[in-house]
Amino acid sequence: MSANSEHAADSATETFVAHRNLLFTVAYEMLGSATDAEDARITGLYYVRNPNKLTHVATGPC
């Protein structure tokens, strides 16, 4: 990872962390379950750090 992409990932992570409680609340309201909301929040953080790899999470075996 280049220095610019590391900085962008760090900045995106900081933004994500700053709003994580709000994101959890929105996910909980949409999904109706704390477990599902936490999974959605974790997936969001993973996407921020690895945007090209999310397809593996979304299309992986269930």
Structure write-up:
This is RNA polymerase sigma-70 region 2 domain-containing protein. It comes from Actinomadura adrarensis. The protein is mainly alpha-helical and 62 residues long. The protein has one domain (3-59). The chain is 81% helix and 0% strand. It has 4 helices and no strands. The protein is flat. The chain starts with a helix and ends with a helix. The relative contact order is 0.12. The model has no long low-confidence stretch (mean pLDDT 77).
Sketch the major β-sheet: none
**N-end to C-end Cα span:** 30 Å
Calculate the mean pLDDT score and round it.
Answer: 77
Radius of gyration: 13 Å
Which H/E pattern describes the elements? HHHH
Give the proportion of residues in helices: over 70%
Total number of distinct structural domains: 1
Q: Uncertain spans, ≥5 residues at pLDDT below 50?
A: none
Shape: flat
Query: How much of the residues is beta strand, in percent?
Result: under 5%
Organism: Actinomadura adrarensis
Protein name: RNA polymerase sigma-70 region 2 domain-containing protein
